[in-house]
Request: fold
Amino acid sequence: MERAKAKARVRHPAWFRDYARLEREAVEINFYNCHDFPGLFQTERRIRALYEMRKPLLGEETVEQRVESRLARQDILTQRPPPMITAVVEEVVMQRPLGDSDVHKEQLEQLLRLARLRNVELQVMPTGRTQHAGMGGSFILLTPKGKPQLGYVEAQSSSRLVTDAEEVRILAARYGSIRAQALTMQESLALIEKMVAEL
Reply:
């Protein structure tokens, strides 16, 4: 009953609604993030800090709605069967203590917990790489059940679903290169553990 109530209260911005609907149906989601962690991985305090620092400022009610909506999306991490989720996140994101150091430490610990789930694969893209296939910015690939894979790109509160087969193929090839250039999952976990220990 509580879950149903929470879903009824979910209010995504208009430009995000199509993606949010498709995400719920996905059997596979692949993230490349260069500015922040995927929303599905963010802690409540991290989400709140992100919305509270928005410019122009968001109203308190809007902040609460957006926090609630993002947290509600995270249900898919534990649904049965859960989608397969892979993510490559830039090392600089791991170093940026948005909110404050406590919020940041909690977020890194959350990443370690999630990366140990059987359906989640997390990799870090080192800042020192001399070759990087992701210089065009963040994007998401998702595969809704029984439907073709599609892409999603977002910048400055605008978004675009990529449904053209050739564009999706290019994004998928790019994602493959990004994963190959990133640290392995084991190396990534070791790096995040080191960062947590140093906080």
